Amino acid sequence: MSDFVEPPVITNRPPSQVAVAQGSTLSLCCAASGSPQPKVLWSRAGQSFDSTMASQQKGCLEIHPVKYNSDGDYICQARNRFGLAEKTTTVTLATKSTLNVPLRCTFNTIFNNIFYVWQ
Length: 119
Fold this sequence. Notes:
By secondary structure, the protein is mostly beta strands. The protein has no helices and eleven strands.
């Protein structure tokens, strides 16, 4: 009887970069092979997640809602007793387009002081 052993290999790679809007849902999935079957967990900067803001099931991480501080590096880790494989996804917050509105500037001088008013 021979046991086949293999360190983890990530087979379904998450994207290296993702932009997501604040208030939306972030979903990242990762899968791995190995023998024994590796356990796949996500972390952010080496820390686990608060269950009130994120859930993990079957190698997928879901964060809802995305908050102003949800950006950063998210790490998929596949681990078994023979090794560790990691892939990092950098999450950035998508920004809304800047609204360009023409403004008019007026100024007044009072006793050598200049006062600007933008309208």
